[in-house]
Structure formats: C-alpha cells, structure tokens
Amino acid sequence: MTSKSLFFKLMKEDFKTRVWTLAISILIFFFSLIVATAMMISFNIYNNSTYNYSDDLAINFMSYIGISNPFFGIIFIVLSLVMAMSGFSYLYSKKKVDMYHSLPVKREVLYFIKIINGILIVVIPFIICEISASLLALANTGKIGVVIAAIWAIAEWTLLFILSYFLTVFSIMLTGNMLIGILACGFFSFYFPLISLVLKGYQSTFFDTYYTSGFIIENVLPNMSSFMLMFNIFELKWLTRIIIVILASIAFLFINLFLYKKRASEAAGKSVSFNVIKLPIKAMMVIFMSILMYLLGYEVMNHSIVWGLFGLIVSGVITHCVMEIIYNQDFKKIFAKKIELLVLIIISIFITAAFQFDIFGYDSYIPSASQIKSTAVISDLLESNSEQYYNKVEISDAYYDESFVDVDYASDSKIEADQIKKMDIQNKDAVLELARQGIEAAKYDLEPQGDFDRVLISYKLKNGRTVGRVYYLDLDQSTLGLSSVYADESYKKSNYPILSQNPENIVSVDFNGIMDNDTHIVFHDDEMKKKFVETYKKELMNLDYETKLKSYPFASIRFNDDFMEGALRKYAGFNYTSDSTSATYSKWENIYASSLESVGFYPIYPEFNETLDLLKEMGVEITYIFPAQYVESIDVSYNDWENTTLDDNNEEVEPYSSETTPKTFTDKKDIEEILDKLVVCDSPYKENLNEDRDYTVIIRSGNPEDSDYRGYNSYGFKKGNIPEILKK
Amino acid sequence: MIEAKNLSKSFDNIKALANINASIRDGDVFGLIGTNGAGKSTFLKVLAGILKPDSGEILIDDENVFENITAKEKFFYISDDQFFFSNTTPKEIIKFYTSVYRNFDVKKCQDILKALDLDINRKVNTFSKGMKKQLCIAIGVAANTRYLLCDETFDGLDPVMRQAVKSLFAKEMDERGLTPIIASHNLRELEDICDHVGLLHKGGILLSKDVSDMKLNIHKVQCVFEKDFDMERLKELDIMQMKNSGRVHTITIKGSEEDIREKMESFAPVFYEMMGLSLEEIFISETEVYGYDIKKLIF
C-alpha cells in the first residue's frame, strides 16, 4: 500500500530530478508575461498623446494573454513536450525502467507523480507570472477587467496545456525511443488535419458537385490534434471549448494510465511499445502518402493518371520502407513485409479510384423525396445580395475618443451555412428537378458561362443528415424550378430577415435611389411606420421570379432599428462634414442613406407600387429612370464575344479586349431611348439577373456641383430589351 | 521463500526463459550462473517484477511479484548497470531510497560507504564502474530487505572488494537472514559464497542443487595402486572421471565419503588421499551427466 507521505516524498524526489524544467518554465513566463507586459506599458506611455492610454493598454493586455494569441499556444506546446519528455522519457531507457519498475511503488503511483509534477512545474510559474503581469496592467489602467481576464486566461491556458501535455504523454506511451516519440508527437499533431486537407482536395478535385466534406472532415479531423486545437479552439464558444478540453483531458489521462500499466518494461529502446499498433500506424502513413502523392502527381502533371499512379506507388513503397526501417531499427529490413506493402498500395489505388471515377456516385447522388425532410437552395440566380443581411455594424468606443463604426463582413461560407440551417423549402419536386438538371449539366462538364451560375442544393434528410451538392445551372433551362423555389415562403423568410421582423423595433428607413437620390426618413407616426413596413413585407413576399427576370430594383431601402440609427449618426459624424454634403443633400440625415451601404438594404422594384406610394406620401422624391436632362452623352460598346481570346479560366486574355470602339450618343432623343431601356441599378441592392452581356453603356452626366446625378457610371440592358437605335 | 513455477518469457521470437522451476530458500545464497544470454538477467528481472512473465508465476512467500507492492518490498534489485539520477550524489540517492524503502537504514548505508571509502557528497557520475557497484551494494544492503537480487554485481569489483562484499553479505545473513540471489557468468566468483546454485542455459535450468549436497556426493581421490592391482576392480566405484599421471590416478567418484573410503581401503592401495572439489569441478562432473561440456557453457 502506498501511503500519502510516500506519494509526496516521491513527488519531491521526482521534482528534484526535473528542477531544470522549472527553471525553463520560470524563464519563459517571466519574459513572456511580466517583461512583455512591462514593455507594453512602456510602449503605451510613449504613445500616450495619440491613444486613449488605459483603454488601449487594457485591450492590448487582454488580447495578448487571451487564448486567441498563438504565441502562448506555441509556448504551451513546447512546454508540454518538455514536461512529457522529462517525466516519461525514462520509459525509453532500459536502465531507468529497471530501476523504476523494481521499486515497491505501484505503476499508477509513479504515473500520477510524473503527471502532477509536470503540470505543477508549468502551471505554478504561469499563475504567478500571469497574476503579476495582470497586477502591473491593473496598476497602469485601473481596470479590474485585466485581472479577471488574467484569471480566465489562466484557467483556459492551463486546461489547454494539460490536454497538450497528455497527448504528448500518449505519444511517449506508444513509443520506445525518443526520436520515434518526437516523430509520434508530429504524427498525432498533424496527421488528422493533413488527412482532412487531402480528402477535401480529393473531393474538390474529382467531384463536380462538391460542396463541403461534412462535419467529420471539415470540423472533427482538423481539430484532432492538440497542436491545431491550440490555435483553433478560441473559435468555439467558451463553455463548449472548456467542456471539450476537460473531457478530452480526462479521457487521455486514463488512456495513458491504461497504456502505462499495459506497457511492457522491455518496450524501452524499441521503436513502438505495442506491436498491435504497428500495422494500423503503417497503413495510415502509407495510404496517406500514397493518396497525397497521387493527387500531387495528377495535379502537377496536368491531370495525368499515369503520373498520379507513379507518385502513389513510389511514395507508398518509400513510406513502407521507412516505416519498416523504423519499426525494426534495422536498414536491412527495408523490404520486409512485402505482402502488407502490396495490400496497402492496392487499398490506396482503390481509394484514389473511388474519387477519380466517382465509384460511390457522389456526383449523381439524389435522394428520394420520401427521404427528404426539407431542402435549401442558395444561388445568385435567386438572390445575390444575401451578404447585406449578414454583414454587421460594430461600434467601438475603445480606440479613439470618438466612436468608431465599422462593418464586420460575413464570409460566404458563414452565410451559406446559416441559410442552410434556416431554410426549409418544402417544394421537394422543384428542388429535385433542379438537382437533376444540375447532375446532367455536370456530366457534360460545362464551363460556367453567361447565365450559368452556381446553385447550392442542401437536403435535410429524415435520418438527421444534411447533404449538400453544388451544381451549375443555366438560367434559361432552370427558370421554372428557380421560380418555384423563389415563391416558397421559407425561402423568402430565410433570405430576407425583414419578413420576420417586428415593425415596432424599426425607427427609420433609408431610401437609396438612382445616383444620389437618397432620403433618410425617421418615423414619428407608429401607424404609418407599421403600415409602411407591413406593405413592404407584403410586396417583397409577393415578388415573383418572373418579375425579377424582367424588371430590376431601381432603388434600395433599409429598415433601421435604434442601434443602426445610432451607428449611422456616429458613422456620418465621423466620416463627413456638413460642408461636404450640403451641396448634394437637402438635409444632413440623407447622407445616412448612402452610408454603410453594405448593410441591410432590400430591393425596391418599380412593381412595388404600394410601397412607392407610401414613400411618396412620406415626402420622398422618387426617380424611376436616370433623368435625361443631366446626361451629356452615352457611350455604348458592343462586346464581340465570338472573337475574344479566353484563357484556361475562361477569362479574357486582356480585359475589355472584346469591347468594340464605343459609339457615343449625344442626341437628346437617342439618349432618352437608351435611358428608357437601361437597367439603372446602382443602389446598394444590386441585381444583374438576365442581363444582356453584349452591350456596355456608360452615362456621362455633367453639372457636377449641384446635381444628384453627377459623374459617370456603367450599366447594361435586360435581355431582349435592347433599344432599336442600338440594333441598327 | 521464492518459487518460480513454469516460468516462461519471450522477447519477440526469442525465448529468454523456458518453463523454469526453481525454489530459493531463505537464508541461503543462491547463485545463478550461465553464459551471456542464458537468461540470468531476465530471470532476475522477472523476479524483481520488472518484466511480466508470459506464462507461469514467480512467488515470494506465495505472493505473485508483478505489480505487488507487498512482495516487492521484500527485495532490492541491483541491476548490472544501475541507473542513478543525473548529477546526483550518494547522499541524494540515499534520500531517494529512504522515501521508497520503509526500513532503509541510513546509518548503515553511510557506515558501509565510509568503510568502502566512498564520499557521499561526490557526484556519482565521477565514480568508476567499481565504485558505482559498491554504492549499489551499500544501498541494497541498507534497504534492509529480505532478498537482495544482484545481477553481475561482482563484475568490476577488485578481489579485495569482492571479499569485503562477501563478508558484508555473510554478516547480513548472519544478523538478519538476508538472502542474496546472485547472477553471474563467472562460476569462480560464486565459489565460496553460494549455498545453492542454479545453472541456466538457453533459458532453462540445467540443474539446481545445494553446493553442500553436491560436495557430499562427489569426491576426488588421488591414489597409487600396487603394480599387480586389477584395475577392473575400480568398476565397483561410481567413477565420473579418471586421470592418470604415471602410476598416480586422480579419480572423481560419486558417493558418500564413507563408502568411498571403505572401497578404497579394500583395494589396499599404496597410497590414497581424499581431496576437496572446487565448484567448477563439481559442475564439470554434474553437467557431463547431462551431456554438456560445462567449459563451453560458463568459462
């Protein structure tokens, strides 16, 4: 039986043998925390005249110590390696193992002594230095938040270090000498993220309808590594990441203990401690290298299967040879286990063939209607302004004395992921028909040109899975399906947040019309506000796809809540002076309508009669077409696509090389005829659906000082809406 | 008492121990001899609970040793190349083992080290191979365990030190019944200390006998017979080996001293003398019975 005193005595003795690691730990944290904080303070004092000193210092300090700082991630990875090696490298030496394992001490006691000391040697200096640094920051900022942030950082970094430490110990438990142990650390740090990249590479290369690789390849594999986890985990919510790290740490604590007890003493000095893992690890390495080199050979050598196979076989054989040399620690065993090599090469070839020739029918996948719970369809053919509703306005008070308003732009992937989650289209037949058309188009490997556009179809299946495919559809052939999807209530509601918004929260609207025909309206009458918002919602909900095709949104409108109104005020106050806008706008607030144009604008079609009537009622002067009286001339170029040289990516070799010499129209009658047919869509919500790509029209307008319509801009026509004057 | 029952241990495809059965009585000095690779160290490591046997068991007082603290507290294992923490001194090593072995006698250890003229404050990495062995022995003895497992412990000790260690063992055996178990490839090293010897060869025990029994049952007689003596009469003796030098015969005979003397006197030799056998000679004789050439095994 091991008494408590024996445990602590042994801990003390073990600590003595690892005292050098304590010195490393203290030095690292002293410089990275206390000295770095002192430097930060000194730097901020020096720049005191420019910045808000205490706010800036507090933000810098909190950002520096937080878990999003990769510098500390690297520090803790290095320390976890040092602590694991100093604690458990005795397992690599027969001499040391003989001594430790002959002692009348249970192996689990030895294990926990090593583990606990390894943690304490790092964590105690870290806590002391972190608290000292936070007190330094507190003394210079007076903000208690820095201490709270430090305590939080201590908790999170400690948990991350413990997980990384346990994973390094895991590598040691599986190996029998230090070099192989370090290689194993590398294997467990990078194998799964790399295999995820290779699989994604395979899918995107060989599957025409590839969308995403699914949760396991996209989210699980890249993070099955303490190394990657150190740098990625801050992206998760705090509770989620803490739970993940704690559960993973507990799991590895006991997995390591199990391995430690199972590990034979004679494993010291061997390459791998458990023979049973030799084949799986070798298989993982050989298959990974083979399929990686196939992909590289295939891609680099211009889609050559022969070169791909050459890369696969050569890298498979070399990897197998290296693994056998490592396993046997004997170069003469380079060609050992030839049958296993052959089987692994065959497996690798099968895997590559499964992707290359789509053996499992990824591209032709289409679920039956009975399997589908609901669907989502996302495409610029349906809506190309979704980012308007995902970009977020942020107000920061910290950096400067005056408020700073900025836009947090949403990524396309985030927008798509959210729309897929929200969208529940029930018109399965229409969606499946679109999918069938997409599969047919994919078979012919058509390059996306003209009105071919990307259409993402996502199926929420009854079994709980969500499956997505990307197709390239021709607008002309898919109009019916797209029209049905656009008519779906769920589609509209998931695309346009205003449709689910309560009018009570809205305080103002921004009307943004042709050129500077902009108006900011603050609602003072709740009845009018409610009526206006509901009218717009009704007309947007009733907007059909056919209208989108034949018409165009000549203006945009934004519905502002209190926060947005405040943000616009601050933004305008910061970015404009009254002098710079007085010449253009009848009132200062109208500048709001052209501020932060990437956020929250919805379309106004000429067909939105009721909305337009209400806007007029509220005093908005609406211009439906570009006013001819401001136009000096119009240049029209014809795009000669047939005689254009295109490169491999279907881009013109020289930009605008297809354009003919523009023809200039200055005659009032000609100008009016062109303007009447022109799509003047230059407000924030833009729609170029069904646009004729043969003509480019540039309007030159004069009288720049006192006009809303100054400068020049480029426009096009809708298909089939070309003025007769141009056809001549 | 230590008992090994059908003990087997393999390393990959190499059989290090093959169905070993042996028992080690308390208070005896057990010598384990064999060539390099015979399995001596493996046997000791299994006995010390370092290695887990593939089959069979090794018991100390009827308790399995592997991962059994009660059993492990009864012995101290000295490996052929003992590990010491880097940059450490005997003083610090004593402290470490004091925390592990509850009966560790610090004073005894210091006394032994003093007697061996080892400085307890000197860094161990400056010690010679022999000094390190002495340090191991001092710690092993001071651990006050019932058994002391020594793997090639006498290797590297000079003859004087070897004698000093043997005396130390004898004293400990006398005072507290220490049972040293000594593995060695050198039979001569164990000559005057072992009570019981086990001969290991290719992972198996060729023989395991009390030295006294072997000595009682084998005798060497040097004799000169009358010229007309009928040498055929010697067949009445259980002769294991006979060498002749002129008329002087040196005969190794199996049997009790009393019986041999009685027979020899009945032959009316001109001269005869009973001579003592070295352990080496006993082994030569014993292993020949099994068809082994002992000289190839252990010398």
CATH architecture of the largest domain in chain B: 3-Layer(aba) Sandwich
| N- and C-termini, Cα separation of chain B | 30 Å
* Total DSSP E strands of chain B: 14
How are strands sequenced across the largest beta sheet of chain A?
11-10-13-14-12
Strand fraction of chain B: 25-35%
Q: Please report the first level of CATH classification, the CATH class of the largest domain in chain B.
A: Alpha Beta
Main sheet makeup of chain B: 6 strands, mixed
Shape of chain B: elongated
Q: Any idea what the radius of gyration of chain A is?
A: 33 Å
Radius of gyration of chain B, in Å, reads 22 Å
Secondary-structure element pattern of chain B, one letter each: EEEHEEHEHHHEHEHEEHEEEHEHH
Distance between the termini of chain A: 104 Å
Low-confidence stretches of chain B: none
Give an overview in words.
The complex is a heterodimer of chains A (728) and B (299). Chain A has 728 residues and is of the alpha+beta class. Chain A folds into five domains: 4-272, no CATH class; 274-363, no CATH class; 369-495, no CATH class; 498-617, no CATH class; 628-727, no CATH class. In chain A, 54% of the residues lie in helices and 13% in strands. Chain A is built from 25 helices and 14 strands. The mean pLDDT of chain A is 89. Chain B is an alpha/beta fold. Chain B folds into two domains: 2-202, P-loop containing nucleotide triphosphate hydrolases (Rossmann fold, 3-Layer(aba) Sandwich), CATH 3.40.50.300; 214-298, Alpha-Beta Plaits, CATH 3.30.70. Chain B contains eleven helices and 14 strands. In chain B, β9 and β10 form a beta hairpin. In chain B, α4 (106-115) packs antiparallel against α5. The radius of gyration of chain B is 22 Å and the shape is elongated. The model of chain B has no long low-confidence stretch (mean pLDDT 88). Chain A binds chain B through residues 1-2, 6, 9-10, 12-13, 16-17, 93, 95-99, 101-107, 261, 264-266, and chain B through 11, 45, 48-52, 67, 69, 72-73, 76-77, 79, 81-83, 85-86, 92, 95-96, 99-101.
